Amino acid sequence: MQITDIRIRQVFDDGKMKARVSVTFDNQFVVHEIRVIEGENGIFVAMPSKKLSGGDYKDIAHPINSETRNMIADAILEAYELKLIEEHSRLSTEDA
C-alpha cells in the first residue's frame, strides 16, 4: 500500500485543530477528515471519528498496526509542514 496523494484541505490558525487532510492510497481509496491536532505533547494526526452517545469519540477509519500509523502520520505531518512553508512564503511575497 502506497500513499499516492495527500491534500491539506484546510489550515487553521486558531485552536487546537491545525489542519484537515485527505489521503489517497494506491490511486484507488481516499480517506477524508483526517485532522492535524496540536496537543500537550506536540502535533499529532487524528483519524476520522464519530462522537458516541456517551460523549467519547471512536475512530471510523484507522491503521491496523503502529508501523502503518507512523508511516501515514509522518507523511501527513511532512505535507502539513510544507504547506505552512508555502503559505508563509506566499504571504511574505504579498507583503513585499
Descriptors for this entry?
96 residues, alpha+beta, four-stranded antiparallel beta sheet, two-stranded antiparallel sheet, 1 helix, 6 strands
Plain-language structure description:
The chain has 96 residues and is an alpha+beta fold. It contains one helix and six strands, in the order ββββββα. It has one helix at residues 66-95, and strands at 3-11, 17-25, 29-39, 42-46, 49-51, 57-59. A hairpin with a 3-residue loop joins strand 2 (17-25) and strand 3 (29-39). The longest helix is centred in the C-terminal third of the chain and has 30 residues, at 66-95. The mean pLDDT is 93.
What's the total helix number?
1
Unreliable runs, pLDDT <50, ≥5 residues?
A: none
What structural class do you assign from the helix and strand content?
alpha+beta
Q: What is the global morphology?
A: globular
Give the N-terminus to C-terminus distance in angstroms.
43 Å
Total number of beta strands: 6
Order of helices and strands: EEEEEEH
Mean pLDDT: 93
Task: Give the amount of beta strand, in percent.
Answer: 35-45%
Main sheet, how many strands, which sense, barrel? 4 strands, antiparallel
Helix content: 25-40%
Question: What's the gyration radius in Å?
Answer: 15 Å
Instruction: Give the strand order, joined by hyphens, for the main sheet.
Output: 1-2-3-4
SSE topology:
Elements: E1 3-11, E2 17-25, E3 29-39, E4 42-46, E5 49-51, E6 57-59, H1 66-95
Antiparallel strand pairs: 1-2, 2-3, 3-4, 5-6
